[in-house]
Design a protein that fits this description.
single chain; 233 residues; mainly alpha; Arc Repressor Mutant, subunit A; Tetracycline Repressor, domain 2; 10 helices; elongated
């Protein structure tokens, strides 16, 4: 990387960090491009050369982190934990860890809830993209688990992914719209619901394990005693 490119990256980073601090202090609506330029130590014209609007600065704040988050989840999807519920919990934990990294939930609301009047129309494309990507990753993980035999073959994976994302999104929206709710509590609720969803399947497959292993179910003789299992050839 050339010296000039490093300088550009340094300026861009300073501008983004200045904006993040001002958004936390004053909120998105009250922060102006002029305030960001002053805090970053550049002229307003220079700031506009790098970012044409506050929305573009917020994109620079969020999209790279989201891309790293999705990359981390791809690694889980490629080699998920042995237990199906643990695998899904691991992916959803990554989502909540990203949320917890934000020091100000007002900015998180900005990029998560475009329907709130204060933020109407702001970054709705990023919200749509991230929601679609999250649903896609949940679906991909569930498909891997189904191929492993940990989810019944007849389950519609697309529908299940929609349900799981809806559960996560409901708790997530509670989190971003209530500053007093701790992250740990929200994730505990998400994990409980995920494990509730997988519980009946775990019980089903545990009870069906002899059949899966190619064994007949134990029969009883006239005395009521269980006969030994015999291998099905």
């Amino acid at each position: 990387m050339s010296v000039r490119e490093r300088q550009k990256q340094g300026r861009r980073k300073a501008m983004v960090e200045a904006a993040a601090a001002l958004f936390a202090e004053h909120g998105y609506q009250k922060t102006t491009m002029e305030m960001i330029a002053v805090r970053a130590g550049f002229g307003v014209a220079t700031l506009y050369k790098y970012f044409q609007s506050k929305e573009n600065i917020v994109r620079a704040l969020t999209v790279p982190d989201l891309e790293r988050l999705f990359a981390d989840n791809e690694r889980i999807i490629q080699d998920p934990p042995a237990d199906a519920a643990d695998a899904l919990v691991a992916v959803l934990r990554n989502f909540m860890s990203w949320c917890d990294s934000w020091r100000d939930r007002r900015l998180l609301r900005l990029i998560s809830v475009p329907g709130i009047p204060e933020y109407q129309g702001t970054l709705s494309d990023v919200v749509d993209w991230s929601d679609a990507k999250a649903t896609e990753q949940i679906r991909d993980l569930l498909r891997v688990l189904q191929l492993r035999g940990q989810i019944p073959a007849g389950v519609n994976i697309a529908d299940m992914a929609t349900v799981v994302f809806a559960v996560f999104n409901h708790e997530y929206l509670l989190y971003v719209t209530h500053d007093d709710i701790p992250t740990a509590r929200v994730f505990a609720d998400i994990e409980r619901m995920v494990r509730t969803l997988f519980g009946p399947w775990r019980t089903h497959y545990a009870s069906a394990e002899p059949k899966a292993a190619g064994l007949a179910q134990p029969a009883r003789n006239r005395a009521g005693r269980r006969r030994p299992l015999t291998k099905i050839v």
